[in-house]
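Hey, quick one: can you model this chain's 3D structure?
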Amino acid sequence: MVITPFTDEEIKKLRSETKGTQHRVHFNNAGSALPPDVVIDTVTGYLQEEAIFGGYETEAKYAAQLDNTYELIARLINAEKEEIALVENASVAWGTAFNGIDFKPGDEVITCEMEYVTNILGFLNAKKNHGVVIKVIPNDEQGNFSLPALEAALSPQTKLIAITHIASTAGGMVPIVAIGKIAQKHGILYLVDACQSAGQLPVDVKEIGCDMLSVTGRKYLRAPRGTGFLFVKKTFQDKLKLLFIDGFSAPTVSLDDFTPRNDARRFELYEKNRALTLGLSKAVEYALNIGIDRIWQRVQHLADTMRQQLSAINGVTVHDFGSEQCGIVTFSVNGVDSINVKNKLADKHINVSVGKAISTLIYMEKNHLVSNVRASVHYYNTVEEIGVMCNELSVLFVN
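Sure thing. Here's the predicted structure for all 399 residues.
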């Protein structure tokens, strides 16, 4: 497939539609990307209407647009509208899926060393409360997830494969499509954490073959904070326990029984922020209009450029590994605490983040890392901005 690259004029236009790019160099997209102006205008405009006309009345006016959010998300990940539930963030989405599984003592959960801390806590909680056994598949010597090791770890007790596609504090990627083929071959449940993936690169749940997938809005989708969604395959929805129930998730109720909704919205509750929902909708639409394949191509180009320039600086070590890498670039400056690097760059109006050991505990401990600097690029960033950051690093810490 031929992908049309961004032109300089297009990048200028996209940056002009994002106020934040005029004030800072923002390399913290894996934390919270700068939203397009249209997303902010959508949220604030809706809130203003609520203030004037009332919350329920404004919701009724925008009912079609709110409902269309599910259609847009379904397009984004190649799912069905009925397989999408809107939640506050990826942790809520992941927890709703994971804790809804009917675990029995001795059930095995297989995961990878790149798992996020919230997911690890979920595993430990299941181990404590249900007697679940946790198996971790380590990366090989090249830093890649080992598919043969996964096959070897499977047993009749394997209940779930739970994988984070892109880690919080590393630039490598886990082969979720290949893992999905193994899960399907053996009839094992498959949960994917795509928190850092959606909006950065193509995510196709049919290609992945997952039963559940969790996403947040604030990262590469450029949506407001406090937004996210959960995908649950239609054929699995009835098998997942409901952790919370209200009149929205179970609209048919008597004094003796209730019937949940017949779609993934059974995993939602009625009360949610409609303004943020429309903001998420607008952000997804914005990404789809640009083209996820195009976004992914540019993100890879910018991340590769950043790694090359950082590696050329004496005293800077890039920590990313694996045959496939993403828009997250992690590095350290010899002899300088990562928080100090972050703060010094912030003084120069350059946003980066600090990857803490707790965030990706298994990977960080294995590689003896206490922390690292995380610089994450998006399509609206430029090669010139990368040069600015690398120059500041050279001036601040090397010379």
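One thing worth noting: Residues 201 and 296 are 5 Å apart (CA to CA).
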